[in-house]
Every structure is written in structure tokens, then in C-alpha cells.
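Q: For a teaching session next week I want to show students how multiple molecules come together into a single three-dimensional assembly. I've collected the sequence lines for a complex. Could you give me the predicted C-alpha cells for the whole thing so I can convert them for display?
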Amino acid sequence: MTTKNIKVLGPGCKRCQTTAEMVQAEADRLGIAVTIEKVTDYAAIAGWGIAATPGIVVDGKVVHAGGLPKAEDIDRWIA
Amino acid sequence: MTGCCSTPAPTPVRHPHTAAWIAGTVAFVAVWFLIYGQLRPAADRIVAALPLEPGSPAAEALTFFVYDTPKVLMLLTLVVFAMGIVRSFFSPERTRALLAGRREGLGNVAAAGLGIVTPFCSCSAVPLFIGFVSAGVPLGVTFSFLIAAPMVNEVALGLLFALVGWKVALTYLGFGLGVAIVSGWVIGRLHLEGWLQDWVRNVRAGAIDLPVETVTVVDRIRAGIDAVKDIVGKVWIWILAGIAAGAAIHGWVPVDLIAAIMGREAWWSVPAAVVIGIPMYSNAAGIIPVVEALLAKGAALGTVLAFMMSVIALSLPEMIILRRVLTFRLIAVFVAVVGLGILAVGYLFNALFG
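A: Of course. Below is the structure for the complete assembly, covering every listed component.
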């Protein structure tokens, strides 16, 4: 099984932190191998085209922007 | 935080418990109105039961506090819940798509209007700013959005409506949008794109391709509940502080003093209110109980609204955040333009509503 590359886009706010933890927790629960990378640089965040943080990128594709994600959505994105 | 369902449903079009959720929402609103109607008599009874002389400053202050605290918190809950549902129809990305390439003028009007309904949190101000500008939203239009979003929001409007009256709330809406539209337009006319930080001008937004999520009615109700948890959980302390300040004004600050400082006769009070408001930082929830108390003590409406707009729209923390994308000169222009707009609103108001 390949490891999924997940980026959490956000300047380091509390929600971004929580989002990263949620993704890790869901991945652990489902037994999916992931590497989580936090992107905090504003220019890099903007480069992904999102206008609200936190954003989530799974294997190079933006799946979420703005607000805490829902656990069931995370399951779908990383599955 | 935790998943509600044991098996992740493959994007449900209709939630199985839709009817139950809607019924629950209706029941909640009904109970809300029942309790809300009982607040005044309950507050009077509580204060009457205390060993305070009726009509004394302490009794006045306490009545204000005991009545306003649950009232404001309840109102806030209802308004934030409703707006949470409305906002589930909007997103910053969608707003940006609507505004990208827009001409100035109409673009400023659209941006200010969208600023009211688009979910916005000041922690997201910088990504939003860069996201807008790099996607081709004109600078002035972006500013219209950034000015309107924090200033004209459901918390400010809902509380003004409930505590001060619908006329003031509507006028605040109109003039708040006016300040955002005109200030953004002026900043756009000045062509200050060169005053952005260098790196901001070089950002090219990647094409965004968010998957289309099906959002059910239940999702929207839950968005409303989440908004309540998030916003009321964050601002209740501000509200208590604001109501305590309002109660103190109500009980102990003499009418003559307020009328002399913030009355219509004092021409200098509007600029003073704006200048004092800049370093002060509070959100709408904290400032409106103070506004209510000041108005009751004979302060002029225009002066009070100018103060309120200045406290909310021009804040030091926000400027510090924006400093990362704007040069100092551009921030100075921003403060000057918005400050002048608020000043004009204050004078106009005092002249119109004598």
C-alpha cells in the first residue's frame, strides 16, 4: 500500500492544528499510512488557490478549504 | 469532532433523520421564544428580591446586567444559528469566483454585500487577501470585502436590532456597507497595487478544483449549531465585559457628562470617538451593550455609531495581521480612508437624526 501524502494548509492557527490531528486520528483508525505535512507559508498556501484556511490537500489535490472538516469527510478523502 | 456514523455514508443526498432534525430545530426556536418572553419579569423579580433601594444606581446597574446578559446571549445564539445556516450556502472560494475580474464600482458593491454572508474569520484574513488579489479580484474590491466582512455582520446587526431598534440596525447596515463600498472604491482609484508587499504580487493562485459536496438540510442545521458553539463560545466573555461596562454607565455615569462629551452639541466628539476607537479592540458583541447604555444616557446616535464602527473596523490586531501583506504606507491609507468614511457617517447621522 502506498503512503498518502497529505498537506494541511494553514498559518498555524488552532484550527489548522486540530485539523492535522483529526486527519492523523482518522488515518490511524482506518489503518491508512499517511504522511502529514503542514504548510504554513502564506505564499505556498495561496498557491494552492484556497481563500480560507485550514485547507487539506490529498496527493496533490485540494479537497477542503475553510473550517474544521468532518470526520466522515476525511474518511472519504483519504480512503 | 467524532464521526456520527459508524459506517461512512457515500455522500448521502438525504439524511435519514431529516424530519427529526427539522422538528428539533422548530422546537428549539419555540422554546427560545417562550423563555425570551419571560426574561424581563424574571430580571425584575430577581432584583426586587435583593436588598437594594429601587431606583438607586446599584439597582439600575444590576437590573441592566441581570436582564441584558441572558437576553444578549440568547439573541446571539439565535442570530448566529440562523446565519450559520445561511452561510452554509456561501464559501470564500465561491465569493472570490464571483468577484474575480469584476469591474470596480459594481464590484465594490458586490464585495461589500458578499462580505456580510461569506464565512470569514480574521485568522483567515491573510490567505483570503492573497487568494483574492492573486485570482484577479481588484485591490479596491478586495478591500471592500475586508472592510464589510468584520464590520457589517450578523452579530452587530442582530444585537443592534434587538437592543437599540430596527431603525438603527438598518441605518448601520446601510452606512456600514456605504463605508466599505466607498473606501474600497477610493483605494482602488488610488492604484496602490505597488504598495503591496513584494512577494504578494508574485503569488499566482493555482487553479482550484474543490470537489462538489452534496450538502443536506441536516448538514446545514449542523453548520448552524457549529457556528453557535464556535462564535458564542468565543465571544461570551466579551459580552459579559461589555454588559458590565454598560451596566456601570447605566448606574453611575451622569447623563450630563455623556451629553456634554458625546452629545450633538460637541462637534469634536465624532472625530474623538473615531480616534479613541482605533486602538480599542472588541467585537460587535462586546461593544453593543455599551452603545445601548450610552444612547440611553443621551449620547448622539452618529457619535456612538462612529465609535462602534471605529472599534470594530479599525483594530490594531487586524492591522498587525495585514502588515504581512501590505506595506506600512498602504495600511496608513486604509486607516485614513476608512476613518474619514466613518467620520462622515457620524456627522451625517447627527445631522439627519437630530
